[in-house]
Target: TetR family transcriptional regulator
Amino acid sequence: MSPTQRTNPSDTRKRLLDATEWLFIEGGYEAMSLRHITARAGANLAAVNYHFGSKEALVQELLSQRLDRLNRERLQLLSACERQRPEGLDARAVLAMLFVPAFRLSHGSASGPAFMRLLGRVYSDPSPFIQDFLQQHYRSISGRFFEAFARALPTLPRGELGLRLHFALKALSGMLAGEDMQQLIASISKGEAINDTELLARLISLVSPILTAPSGNTEQIKVIEQVLQQDQVTAEATRTTPPAADTDSRRQGIPPSTLWIQDGRPAS
Model:
């Protein structure tokens, strides 16, 4: 890169945004500082102040550039599907509508994989600054999708639905944000070619039971109580009895961690 290109204001602005995106994906909002950003961008703090004014404004600009179009297209897709299915949408379809536009947009740029990881990081980052930004700027889309989920799952109390959506989106976003996304794809596809439709269908099949599973009932509570009681008994026995050597597994050359499974079933 020539000195002229390095000092071009628009080039400096882009390099600062690119550096911020990379650092945010890798470590989240709290882990990156302006010094980290400027070092990666080959710029100085004065450039940040000139173009953005602060770290907060820089991150807001990045997220707006990346998320505004995505959220417009999400709303357009939701509205179109609701017109086609006025009787109501399936919860899995509504969940897919949050991610189908992202998969499509990720193919329209050379930084497609980075876009998916950015999206995953945005929804899994615990920073109050990031969460406040999402609440303030995208409250309308959150409300529209919440109501769509509420219509798809009419028997769920709204408080329960909100809790489940939180966990479902965290789980799906965590998958997208991970560095091992390619390993996940390979595991799902079993080494065969897989397209976005098949990948997203598989991911949603893993996450959607969080939304659709029945609420805890008396039988489920009883099972958990039994486990808790047994845990207390086991913990007490462990405190009073020294651990015995696992001589049987050592004689047979079986790793102790695998003893609880025999022939694909829990060992008795």
